[in-house]
């Protein structure tokens, strides 16, 4: 029988499933590049590459072992405080605000229907009675009257 891998082992294999650290992938060729016109000896190039890789990995491991648990604890507490704040403070306050605003919304809608809508209706009827007419005949007469001497 094959056993299903546990969630913990999945997390150890794929530590960045959302690709959050894509911008942090740094290799030797991303940092150092020699043009064709000037080159160091091959042994110096390879030794420098190995020193870069080893120092980067050792330093990261050292900092991870030293700082990661403390940082994880601080981040866990920070996110727990934010969750607590939203669950017990922000969401209830927003709910109170929505309930209060619903009553104000009904009051304003009633006032609008009682006072503003009749005024707007009357003004609309008043302004709809205005007719605008254009007279194109007058324009044609002006264009037909040319100076006889210039023609």
Automatic annotation (TrEMBL):
Subcellular location: Cell membrane; Golgi apparatus membrane; Membrane, Caveola
Keyword Cell membrane listed: yes
UniProt keyword Cell membrane, yes or no: yes
Main subcellular localisation: membrane
Domain of life: Eukaryota
PANTHER family named in the record: CAVEOLIN (PTHR10844), CAVEOLIN-2 (PTHR10844:SF19)
Task performed by this protein: May act as a scaffolding protein within caveolar membranes. Interacts directly with G-protein alpha subunits and can functionally regulate their activity.
Protein's name in the database: Caveolin
Organism annotation: Pyrocoelia pectoralis
């Amino acid at each position: 029988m094959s056993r299903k891998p546990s969630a913990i082992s999945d997390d150890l294999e794929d530590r960045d499933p959302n690709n959050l650290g894509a911008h942090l992938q740094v290799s030797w060729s991303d940092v150092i590049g020699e043009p064709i016109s000037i080159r160091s000896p091959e042994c110096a190039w390879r030794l420098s590459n190995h020193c870069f890789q080893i120092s980067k990995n050792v330093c990261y491991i050292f900092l991870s072992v030293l700082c990661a648990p403390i940082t994880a604890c601080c981040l866990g507490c920070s996110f727990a405080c934010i969750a607590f704040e939203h669950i017990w403070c922000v969401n209830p306050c927003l709910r109170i605000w929505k309930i209060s605003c619903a009553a104000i919304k009904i009051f304003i809608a009633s006032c609008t229907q009682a006072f503003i809508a009749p005024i707007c209706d009357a003004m609309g009827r008043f302004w709809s009675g205005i007719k605008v007419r254009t007279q194109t005949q007058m324009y044609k007469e002006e264009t037909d009257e040319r100076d006889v001497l210039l023609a």
